[in-house]
Design a protein that fits this description.
The radius of gyration is 23 Å and the shape is globular. The chain is built from 15 helices and ten strands. By secondary structure, the chain is an alpha/beta fold.
Length: 407
């Protein structure tokens, strides 16, 4: 991986004892920045002992600020000499003054500072309106030590912020949290991910995202896109078959503000739920039947890539079988293969049913499907007969029942 010298924010290598570099973008965050730094300064190991000062450093980039963020950072640094905090300021051109550019500058610099280390280390990303749990760094390091190449943490709303949200937004947020966890469990049952077993979640946002220097270079680093840079980065990780762990123990608390920097992200989603309520628009999500079809399709594709057994794709049209075969011939790994196939289009074209449904009905349907599948897997098989047990339902039947609820 090649990094332009002009893009390096801090020269030199990290202390040999350093195992983590926390990258922190900030633009007009004078109100929350000190609390964010306080949370990082209070990091402990898994036994609750404060982390040694040399264990990690913080790389802060203040870009295009028009408030007192820089003064807050410098004052905090003077008051806390025990934490190695690099305060960097940049006035970026308007066309590139966005989160993708900023995260790339930060993470490229962190990679350079850690790139010659042999001991396991991690590049971490968080936000200046978020507060890391006390063991956030330690939990990330533990996931890396267990074989993960990258770690997505769970984002939780700051309690006071959550309570301040309008009731309809709080309810929508709660429904969505339940939906995301149910989908994560559903995926684990029908398309389990290597190195990412249940319990898990689905989150890998910039407020809590980490990776090893090795995989950062292997995937090509952070893309400098104007929004959804974390999603684009994870796409790169998946393309090179990085082992991405969605660790429930890695937690960051984030603000519930509605005035986010972009139309996407959490702030945008909160605003969207408020608008949906104001317009009396139903909260709809992907249905249980659609998700079940998606995960089964992805599992068949993975099995086909690994084994070459055409039975995995025999139910598809000739054109899709040819696409899968050609992609398998060209791809160097599963992630590249899935990208070449265009899985989203394949899933959509081979699904026949209701694609979306009200979120609470979907949550009930997924819960029912998971319950039936776990019962099926754990139930002892009767060796004396192939006949199904009276009253038993297969997972497919459970999802079929669920799809009726979706309607």
């Amino acid at each position: 991986m090649i990094v332009e010298p002009a893009n390096i924010l801090v020269e030199g290598r990290a202390d040999p004892r350093c195992r983590a570099i926390v990258t922190l973008p900030a633009r007009n965050e004078e109100a929350s920045l000190a609390a964010t730094l306080d949370a990082l300064n209070g990091q402990v190991d898994l036994l609750g002992t404060p982390l040694a000062a040399a264990t990690f450093e913080v790389l802060l980039l203040l870009n295009n600020c028009t408030d007192g963020s820089a003064a807050v950072a410098q004052e905090w640094k003077r008051a806390h000499p025990e934490l190695l905090l690099h305060c960097c300021e940049r006035e970026l051109p308007k066309q590139t003054a966005h989160i993708g550019t900023v995260r790339k500058l930060l993470m490229d610099t962190a990679w350079m500072r850690l790139s010659e280390r042999r001991e396991q280390s991690v590049i971490l990303s968080t936000d200046s309106d978020s507060y890391a749990a006390p063991d956030w760094i330690a939990q990330n390091l533990r996931s890396i030590s267990r074989g993960a190449d990258a770690v997505g943490g769970e984002l939780r709303l700051i309690a006071a912020d959550h309570q301040s949200l309008p009731l309809p937004v709080r309810e929508a947020y709660g429904d969505d949290r339940r939906y995301q966890l149910l989908v994560a469990e559903m995926e684990d049952l029908w398309d389990p991910q290597t190195g990412d077993p249940w319990p898990r979640h689905l989150e890998h946002f910039g407020a809590s995202l980490g990776c090893t220097p090795e995989v950062y270079a292997r995937c090509g680093g952070m893309p400098a896109v104007s929004e959804l840079e974390d999603v684009a980065f994870v796409d790169r990780l998946r393309r090179v078959d990085a082992r991405l762990r969605h660790e429930p123990g890695v937690v960051v608390y984030t603000s519930a503000r509605l005035d986010g920097r972009t139309a996407t992200g959490l702030a945008g989603q909160l605003r969207c739920w408020q608008l949906m309520h104001d317009c009396k628009e139903e909260h709809r999500v992907l249905s249980a039947a659609y998700l079940h079809h998606r995960f089964r399709t992805l599992r068949r594709l993975r099995d086909f890539f690994i084994t070459g057994d055409v039975e995995n794709v025999s139910s598809w049209s000739l054109s899709w079988r040819q696409v899968a075969a050609e992609a398998r011939r060209r791809a160097g790994g599963v992630g590249e293969f899935l990208t070449e196939v265009d899985c989203d289009r394949l899933v959509d074209e081979t699904f026949h049913g209701l694609r979306e449904a009200p979120i609470r009905a979907v949550n009930a349907a997924i819960f029912k499907a998971i319950r039936h599948e776990r019962a099926r897997v754990s139930a002892p098989m009767l060796r004396s007969s192939n006949r199904p047990r009276r009253g038993a339902q297969s997972a497919q039947q459970a999802v079929g029942t669920a799809s009726i609820l979706d309607r």
